[in-house]
Design goal:
By secondary structure, the protein is an alpha+beta fold. The chain is 26% helix and 36% strand. Strands 6-5-4-3-2-1-13-12-11-10-9-8-7 form a 13-stranded antiparallel β-sheet.
């Protein structure tokens, strides 16, 4: 065992030598037989048959190949599970319909790379429908070139629809709704760091979604979702990592990257008040600017603190 003779074999060999020396029986016979026997070649006696060596090499190769195949299969299975779980999580996030309508105001607080601060008032409305809900973001104030009203129509099983809303040229209702194309989604909202695509969480509708890990973030246990676009065509970002709170099911942080894995945006929820979002902060690493979108939760449709 373990390359060494067992205790019983060793005692047996020692016993045979002792008997020959004591009795002399068999000694002459052994000597006579030794005269007619050719000397042994130590190297030859220790050599293994060539066929055995080849067979062992073949077995080793086969085992190595099987190990690689099994490992690849395990990785493929893990990848399939990650994609299945990721698609299910993204579908769950897309289906989170607001519990009630919201009609409130807010403010965009912008700090640029030079430290200059700007405040832009906005209006925010959520309108519920049977199979969808509408989100309206309107820039208010006295600066004409910043005035903007964006409509995002959300449907759980369909892609978002984005419109630029303008007063009807005839002055009657309903107002004109101009559909926005892909390039329009990466335009600034109200001169802030938020793009139109950011407002609609467009990355949750991308074709590839993967659950990459589970980790703590800001004291909360989160699932990390990776969203991948087919291509960004240089317009914006094509990879987003989202930290989804396991308990509440909401996104608490997101990071947006370009094709070269360059981080360009960081989103974080800064304040939640009675289950309602109070503030979102966006840091733009390209421009070294920060925008905070703050909501007034004491208006109609949004419960405030008592």
């Amino acid at each position: 065992m373990n390359g060494r003779p067992s205790m019983n074999c060793g005692l047996w060999i020692a016993g045979c030598g002792l008997n020959r020396r004591q009795t002399g029986v068999g000694c002459d016979c052994q000597a006579r037989r030794g005269k007619n026997r050719l000397p042994r070649d130590p190297a030859r006696s220790l050599a293994k048959p060539a066929g055995m060596a080849v067979s062992r090499r073949k077995i080793s190769t086969i085992i190595g190949t099987l190990a690689v195949v099994l490992w690849c299969a395990m990785l493929a299975r893990a990848g399939d599970d990650a994609e299945t779980s990721g698609m299910a999580l993204a579908r769950q996030l897309r289906a989170q319909k607001p519990a009630q309508e919201v009609h409130t105001s807010g403010v965009l607080r912008i700090r640029d790379a030079q430290g200059k601060r700007t405040e832009i008032p906005i209006r925010f409305d959520v309108i519920l429908h049977t199979n969808s809900w509408w989100s309206l973001y309107e820039v208010q104030g006295s600066v004409p070139n910043l005035k903007q009203k964006i409509l995002v129509i959300h449907s759980p099983e369909q892609t978002n629809q984005y419109f630029l809303v303008k007063p009807n040229t005839a002055g009657s209702n309903p107002p004109d709704r101009i559909p926005l194309g892909d390039a329009d989604l990466f335009q600034s909202f109200g001169g802030s760091d938020f793009w139109v695509a950011d407002l609609g969480l467009e990355f949750l509708h991308w074709p590839k979604q993967r659950l990459v890990k589970t980790e703590m973030r800001r004291g909360r246990s989160c699932r990390v979702l990776e969203s991948l676009a087919l291509r960004s065509e240089g317009l914006g970002y094509d990879r987003v990592l989202s930290w989804v709170d396991i308990e509440t099911g909401g996104i608490v942080r997101a990071e947006a990257y370009r094709e070269n894995q360059q981080l360009i945006k960081e989103f974080s929820l800064r304040s939640i008040k009675k289950g309602q979002l109070k503030e979102i902060q966006l840091r733009n690493t390209q421009t070294d600017s920060v925008t905070r979108l703050e909501f007034d939760l004491d208006l109609e449709g949004v419960p405030g603190e008592e």
